[in-house]
Amino acid sequence: MTLFSTFGLFIALSLFIALLLAVIAIMPWLRASRLRDKPVDNQLLDINVAVFRERLTELQTDKDSGIIDDVHYRNQKLELERQLLDAQRTVTPMVAPSYKSRLIIMIWVPVLAGLAYFLISDRTSVFDLWVAEDKVGQVADDLLTGKIDQPPAWAIEDGTQLISAMQTNVYRHADDPDRWMRLSELFLSLEATDSALEALSRAYRLSPGNEEIATTYAQISFFANKGQLDANSRRVLQDVLAKNPKHEGAQMLMAMGEARGNNFEQAQGWIKRLRTSIAAKPGDHSQALASLDELSANVRAQQQQASEGVEVTVSINASLLPLVKADDVLFVAIRDVKGGPPFAAKRLPISVIKQGEATISLSDLDAMMPERTLASARGDKIQLAVIARISHSGTADAESGDLTGNPVVISADQIQVNVAINQQVP
Questions:
Q1: Which long-range contacts (CB under 8 A, 24 or more apart) does 71-76 make?
Q2: Is the pLDDT reported for residue 271 higher than 90?
Q3: What's the pLDDT score for residue 42?
Q4: Which residues, other chains included, contact 249 with Cβ-Cβ below 8 Å and sequence gap of 6+?
Q5: pTM of the predicted protein model
Q6: Helix %, strand %, coil % of the chain (to 5)
Q7: pLDDT tens sequence across 135-161
Q8: Which helix (H) or strand (E) holds 93?
Q9: Element housing 106 (H / E)
Q10: What is the DSSP string of 299-342?
């Protein structure tokens, strides 16, 4: 179907509906042409007759029950008849519209409807979408259903058209997890990570038992969160491993996530399980086993660095807990008491705080610059202070309304410290 045929069909349907509504609106006028030249509106007379009958029935009932006598009954009946005759003399003529008036209405209703459609808002985006669907709609469907792996050269002359057609196709088949999966691949190729995660999330909700979709969703979430396993990613991987305990991709993500979360023993456990699984398979897997050994060595090095860091226990004053919001961010850092960039810092979601308290480990693993580490600061005998702040905006600089506490000075060999968040930034 070409652009003009699609547009023509739309215009034809719009005019048909407008004409239909116009005919319905002037139908009483069309009926009026079959009446007399000066028709009479008898609606009021009909009402008066109905009222007269009801009143006459009431009078008859009153007479039969002895409430009124015959004289009073006759007088009241005569009065009602007189009032009814007066109403018959008063009539309201109905003015029938001319053929010119009818023709004007029939023409202007569809004209005004069309003008309103074109003038009220800019329809350029709609027309562009029609053009895209007419040109590359079938190519988009073939890509999303796996019939082709690469679009033809002519289809990617205008990448925007293909992307629009693919998105529209997916929303028309919103219950197909495979289409959402392939749409996420498109977003990843465009480095639109947030959109890719949303598409993968929909695919996973539609088909939670699909291992490929689940592990891809967890993997993209893992890297989008800078190597952190959030609660959702961890749950997805645990579901995959519950069904397939030897799933190598899920085991590797668990090992990397536990190491990044300073859960080194758990990370080593996942590496060991993965190494055993690979070694048991037939064939030469020396390269993969060597990579796992290297990863295990890196985890041990990280564990050593973490052991030389500082364990910070952050607590929030109970009176400030109502001010904490679900999308707040917790900043914890160790810096020179004189100021300057921190030697170690972490930016964490507020969900790490449980029952008003959280324990965070800061070490050289959390250094912002390679040359500015806790080890170098301690070697230079720099006096250090630990700070903690809850930010509503998520920015590193303190803003009005943020929750904070006084910096806590620590000694060179101190490895534990408590920081209380007990005030609000004015």
A1: none
A2: yes
A3: 52
A4: 215, 219
A5: 0.63
A6: 60, 15, 25
A7: 888 988 988 988 888 888 888 777 788
A8: strand 92-93
A9: helix 99-120
A10: HHHHHHHHHTSEEEEEEE-GGGGGG--TT-EEEEEEEETT-SS-
